[in-house]
Structure formats: C-alpha cells, structure tokens
C-alpha cells in the first residue's frame, strides 16, 4: 500500500473528486484548484454550472489515512468564489422600514420592547357613570384623555428625545432655509398651536393654510407668513409725481400752405 501522508496523491485525485460530483447528480465545470487541508485531506474546486449561481464553485473534500492508499469522500459543498453573485446581507424588517414606507392598508406593529414606548395604566371613566354624586362622565373622560389614560403604552423619555431631535433637525426646524430667512419665530405667531404634553414648550402645529399648514413645527421655526408680518403700505414710488391728465391745454395750429408746383 502507498503512504499518502504527503497529500500529493490527494491533490492529484481530480478525477475522483469530479466523479463524486457526477454521482451526486451535478455537472461540474472546469477544475480550478486543489488545496491541502491538513496532513490527510485535500479540497478540489470546480466551477458550478448552475443557473443563478454565477461565480460559485463546488468544493469536494477528499480524505486519506496513514498506511493505506484508499481515498474517501469527506464532503461536498457549494461555496461562493471570487466575484460570486451573493444575496445582500439579511437585515431585520424593523431595521429596514424607513419613514414614508407606510402605505394605505399597511399594518406596522411596534416591537414589544420598543424603547420609544413605555407601559401605561389603562383606565376608563365607566365607574363614574353609575354614581349620581360623581363628576360628570364627559368631564372625567376629557381629563382622562388629556393625561393619557386609556392607552396601553405611552411615549417614553427616550422616544420623546428622539422625536424632538428629529423634528428639530427636520424641514420645520430652526436650521431650515425658510426659518433662517424668516423675521419672526413660530412661538410668537398667532397661527401656532402648541402641542400638549411634554413637547408643548418646543413644538406645535401650524394652522396657516398658506404656510406649514397641518405640520408639526418647532417653536423656533419661522416663515414669511407670520401673523405679525405687515403688508406693504402701497404708497407708490416717490421718485415721480403723478401725471395730471386734467390740466391739458389744447392748442390748434394752422397748416402751412402747400408749396406751389412748378
């Protein structure tokens, strides 16, 4: 028997590796290389002639043992080669969703451990409806809604910070081109309606249909449609006096006699 400890016999066993692939029902392409894998194994690489697997290779690992010339099949695996067509890295859906992706009919559930949300005490005003001496249920319901009762989760401190920073840095924040060119800030505008809750001091909604109507704007945002902007006085240009067409003097001139013809 021949000793194969040097691996040379395994590296030269291209036909055995190809036959192993054919037996598995594959049609391998050209043999690319043989690589020693330790003292008693060698890997043979063949082009994979498979539709949709451009640049991929079949790897056939052959093994031997000391004191015998027998070569055995250890493993067959399909591996990407240099320049192989690969699928993009998998990204969890929660990390793929971006602002503006939500379309009509879509459902987007917040994760149970979403850091932007915290558990809330759920309460209703039902208990007040059956006691004649209790406050009016409509009034109670209004207060309950104001403080957030009735919702299972509320915006967390981290969620408020993240939201405030996004709005502050966005299109309706103080750093936008519109705000930089505005003479006044939204916090002094009659069209500015402050938000309720923890964000009240910094943000509100614009109600001016000719400005940022319906958008949440920073209190430090501003535009040219501020309620204190004064309209031009319309006094005209002082460079020229008005033309008085009622002071015309009409003068008739007699026509000169036509020159005699020779």
Key descriptive features of the protein:
262 residues; alpha+beta; three-stranded antiparallel sheet; 6 helices; elongated; disordered N terminus
Helical amount among residues, as a percent range? Answer: 10-25%
Strand content: 15-25%
Radius of gyration: 42 Å
Q: Order of strands in the sheet with the most strands?
A: 1-2-3-4
Number of helices: 6
General form = elongated
What class do helices, strands and sheet pairing give? Answer: alpha+beta
* β-strand number: 9
How far apart are the first and last residues' alpha carbons, in Å? 145 Å
What does this structure look like?
This protein is an alpha+beta fold. Helix content is 18%, strand content 19%. The chain has six helices and nine strands. The protein has a four-stranded antiparallel sheet, covered by helices on one side. The longest helix is centred in the middle third of the chain and has 13 residues, at 157-169. It is elongated and about 130 Å long. The relative contact order is 0.08.
Short description:
With 262 residues, the chain is α+β, with helices and mostly antiparallel strands.
Topology at a glance:
Elements: H1 8-11, H2 14-23, E1 28-36, E2 41-48, E3 56-63, E4 72-80, H3 93-96, E5 117-119, H4 137-147, E6 153-155, H5 157-169, H6 177-181, E7 192-194, E8 203-206, E9 216-218
Antiparallel strand pairs: 1-2, 2-3, 3-4, 5-6, 7-8, 8-9
């Amino acid at each position: 028997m021949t000793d194969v400890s040097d691996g040379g016999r395994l590296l030269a066993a291209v036909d055995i590796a190809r036959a192993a692939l054919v037996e598995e029902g594959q049609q391998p392409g050209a043999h690319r290389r043989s690589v020693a894998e330790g003292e008693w194994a060698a890997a043979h690489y063949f082009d994979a002639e498979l539709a949709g697997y451009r640049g991929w290779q079949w790897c056939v690992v052959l093994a031997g043992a000391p004191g015998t010339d027998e070569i055995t099949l250890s493993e067959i695996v399909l591996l990407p080669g240099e320049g192989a067509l690969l699928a993009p890295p998998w990204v969890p859906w929660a990390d793929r969703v971006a602002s503006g992706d939500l379309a009509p009919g879509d459902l987007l559930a917040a994760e149970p451990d979403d850091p932007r949300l915290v558990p809330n005490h759920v309460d209703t005003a039902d208990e007040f409806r059956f006691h004649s001496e209790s406050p009016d249920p409509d009034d109670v319901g209004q207060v309950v809604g104001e403080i957030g009762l009735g919702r299972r989760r509320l915006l967390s401190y981290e969620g408020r910070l993240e939201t405030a920073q996004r709005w502050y840095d966005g299109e309706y924040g103080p750093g936008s081109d519109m705000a930089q060119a505005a003479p006044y800030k939204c916090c002094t505008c009659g069209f500015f309606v402050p938000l309720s809750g923890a964000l009240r001091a910094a943000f509100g909604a614009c109600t001016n249909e000719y400005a940022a109507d319906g958008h949440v704007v920073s209190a430090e945002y501003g535009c040219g449609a501020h309620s204190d902007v004064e309209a031009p006085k319309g006094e005209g240009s002082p460079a020229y006096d008005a033309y008085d067409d009622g002071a015309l003097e009409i003068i008739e001139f007699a026509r000169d006699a036509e020159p005699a013809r020779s």
